[in-house]
Each structure stands twice: as structure tokens, then as C-alpha cells.
Amino acid sequence: MSSEYEAHSRLAAFGNQLIEVHVWLREFMEDLRDGVDDYFDGRGLPPIDLRAHCLAFCSALTRHHTGEDRVAFPAIAEEFPELRKVLSELRTDHNQIEWILGNLRKLLGSLPEKPDPAAAAPVRAELEALSAILQTHFIYEEKKLISVLNGMDVPEWRADPPAFLRHDAES
């Protein structure tokens, strides 16, 4: 294998890693939606476990977006100033997503031990809103930033991947 090929593989990894993180977050979101549906159908996790699942998802998503805002976006803006408007739009999405996550945490935090049909509609509405904005956000971000990230050379990101490139719940 040539060193030119190895260098290209390392460079391409950042954009590809971002896609992997988005896939993982989409799957995590689907698991949460399934857990909520199961709870309201009376065959799911108890509320405390559902809240823990939500907190893990919310923390992972917040960590990802905070990492983008603090690490990725400044690096991209410096190298590609023409993308500053795109980055600003993505930050606005991050703020909207965080607001929805706060609403979802409150709703799931107040679930009774036994499913209450009256609580189902607001919880599902927040999940639908979150799912919709995440889907459009990820697609837009991937469309605008994958090729940019694949072309960037940031050695410290290879040595120690920043939060926005991680797809595990514990980091």
C-alpha cells in the first residue's frame, strides 16, 4: 500500500466518521422511539429505565453537537470562510435540538410507573419533532460538510478523535 493511499485514507476518515456517528445517532433515536412506544403499549421498560435511555441519547447528541460547535466548526470556518453561513445555520439547529431535548427530558421525567394514555401524545410529539429536525439537520450537514471534512488534515483529530467524531455512549 502506498503512503499516498494511506494519507488519503486518513484524510477521508473525518467525513466518513461523521456519517458513521450520524448513523449511530439515528439508530439510538429509533431505539428510544421504540422504547417509548413499548412503554405506552404497556410492554416496555419501566419509566426509570426509559429516562436513563433518554439521558444517554440526549447526552450523546449534546456531546456531538457541542464538539462540532467548539472544535469542528471553528476549524472549518478558518479554512473555509465561505461556509460560515452554513455553520451558523447548523448552530441554530443545535440550539433548537437542545430545546427539544430539554422538553423531552421533562416529559419523560414525569412519566408515571404505569403508562398514562394522556401522556403519550406530548411525548410522541416531541419525539416526532426531534426526529424531523435531526433528519433534515444531518442530511444538510452531510451535504455541506462531508467533502470539506474529507479534505482536511488535522493530525490531532487522528491522534485523539474529538467528541463530534465519537459514536459511543460513554465518551
From TrEMBL:
<protein>
    <recommendedName>
        <fullName>Hemerythrin-like domain-containing protein</fullName>
    </recommendedName>
</protein>
<dbReference type="InterPro" id="IPR012312">
    <property type="entry name" value="Hemerythrin-like"/>
</dbReference>
<dbReference type="Pfam" id="PF01814">
    <property type="entry name" value="Hemerythrin"/>
</dbReference>
<feature type="domain" description="Hemerythrin-like">
    <location>
        <begin position="18"/>
        <end position="147"/>
    </location>
</feature>
